[in-house]
């Protein structure tokens, strides 16, 4: 038992060293990526209206093309950036770049531009006292209206944290909409609706996957649509992958959805092409997902 305990503690600290070393490596590369011009970029995934699938908004999603590792998922490097604090600078860049792109679509497509761009914001960013001010500055610099922007936060980011909730309230007071992302997967999803100002619930893919199952399986997605409606919030179904799911969600009362069924995240250029196509021929334009 003594031997076992010893080897376990060795293995444990080796894991810790591994993670620290991997964090340090990725962190150094990420710093390099932030300084270089072309490794980091944003993709934009349409958020569509049901049932027709026309584009209501887009969500900005960061990508990193690492010179040796290839495409690194944000699921991998965002936590590293959160741990080493780089997320503050990285998050500022994402916000600026997404707003700059949105302003360009407005110039190019007018009313045909997406009505909002969603930007994911980390817990760590909400803990920066100046963050609401940064949002106001970026809107002013890019000339966007506050309601062109949607800030996506997760439940864990604001859970049990007074200052973060105050920052969220300050951002909302600017006229920027707030979405609770991955709704239903955190620790205090419903409790949070009483303390944190929210305009949009993004219902997690986990619940969307079950909408075509039994009534019991679909019950959470059904209830979340009702809760959103009762509270005057908009609900977005995340991770919609099939026509059957889209149909069921519409029947349940969902009017906004996002997922591979409608579109994968696209480059700014490809998204611009989609907007141009939609604007050119509104009567015959077929949403990409329904076409394919
Ligand atoms: P999220 O904000 O919940 O974004 C939705 C994720 O689901 C995206 O993954 C998107 O590509 C993926 N997705 C969309 N539709 C489908 C579908 O039909 N099926 C499946 N399986 N997946 C779908 P992605 O881009 O890998 O981002 C993962 C997470 O990384 C995001 O989850 C968000 O939490 C975080 N993230 C991404 N960009 C940023 C950023 O700029 N800042 C911060 N702080 N976090 C970010
Ligand atoms: Mg999101
Ligand atoms: Mg989400
Ligand atoms: Mg998610």
From TrEMBL:
It comes from Planobispora takensis. The keyword Amino-acid biosynthesis does not apply. This is Uncharacterized protein. Keywords: Membrane, Transmembrane, Transmembrane helix. Signal peptide: none annotated. Residues 23-279 form the EAL domain. The keyword Membrane applies. It comes from the Bacteria. The lineage of its organism: Bacteria, Bacillati, Actinomycetota, Actinomycetes, Streptosporangiales.
